[in-house]
Amino acid sequence: MRSSPVFLAYAKINLYLEVIKKRRDGYHNLETIFQSVSLSDRLQFFPQPEKVTMECDNETLARDASNLVVRAAQLVRTRFGVAQGVHIHLSKQIPIAAGLAGGSADAAATLVALNQLWNLKLNLCQLITLGLELGSDVPFCLAGGTKAGRLRGQDLYPMHAPVAVWYLLVHPNLHVSTREVFTSPLLRPTGETPFAGWTRSFRRVRRHFENGDLAAAMFNRLEEVVFPMHPELASIKQRLQQAGSIAAGMSGSGPTMFGVFRSRDEAVKAGQAFPDIRTSVVCPTLVGVNSFEE
Ligand code: C5P
Q: pLDDT tens, 4-26?
């Protein structure tokens, strides 16, 4: 097969996540701070006639239309009347159903790649609108970097990335269903009314964040739902705090937990406190999708 560009799809973490209210369409309005991090899946796209097919080095992942990558490609084909097909290679590094938006990142990379391959000339706004049809986190994965997100998470505003920060991600071997978390009776949206777009609480958090005070800014409302389901997550958070993190918390609907550290060395050292769990040491990235020629 001839060479084709490699696309890297970066994972995200939520440095802050508050649930404001349940909407009429069943989704929830959120206020969140997203951060892309340097843990990535790798994708390549090979033109072929008519069909969308994929292969993946992770046996547990479906390769049919239930896979977000295949759905993304089919969405682009039907929406823009593309006759060509594509064969997609996916190499997974981001844990699945882990609160890291791995599937959404892969879908975002697919939209970016097919926009190029099929010469559709869609701009970022158009890609984001398409992406939201695939999942709430796809718009952020297209935008990447450090962003404040509101509504379902698709209304994105740039923020300064915290400086001199490394993250230790701890990946417990659990699968958490985002849907189950958002429909749990334990979930208590704040109901706070935003003014000029954002709540008073979020304005306060944004000030802490922009001042570099991550310990004061970090919070995840979904911990109240997920920790009672999986008490070991609360203990991982405590162990991250004891291991010297500036702050620790859960990403998205979990189960990935993360700690914030001032240097790579400190994050690596803290990882030794989790000999029995997969961990990754990552830094912030400026983009959600990247590509290069091999
Ligand atoms: O959009 P996505 O498919 O990732 O969402 C998965 C599930 O998470 C939805 O079915 C919904 O129950 C819940 N969700 C929500 N509000 C959001 C994002 C997700 O209620 N903003």
A: 899 999 999 999 999 999 999 99
Rounded Cα distance between 36 and 103, Å, is 14
> Distance (Å, rounded) from C-alpha 275 to C-alpha 146?
30
Under the banding of pLDDT at 50, 70 and 90, the label for residue 153 is very high
The residues near 285 (Cβ < 8 Å, ≥ 6 apart) are 10, 36, 37, 38, 144, 145
Q: How far apart are CA 287 and CA 214, in angstroms?
A: 21
Instruction: Return the residue whose CA atom lies nearest to atom 14 of ligand 1.
Output: 27
pLDDT in tens, 76-97: 999 999 999 999 999 999 999 9
Rounded Cα distance between 183 and 117, Å, is 39
CA of 182 to the centre of ligand 1 (A): 7
Q: Which residues pair with 282 in a beta bridge?
A: 167
**Residues taking part in catalysis:** 12, 137
Residues whose CB falls within 8 Å of the CB of residue 202, separated by 6 or more in sequence, listed in order: 16, 18, 31, 148, 194
Q: Which residues pair with 270 in a beta bridge?
A: none
- pLDDT above 90: percentage of residues in the chain: 93
d(CA 215, CA 203): 16
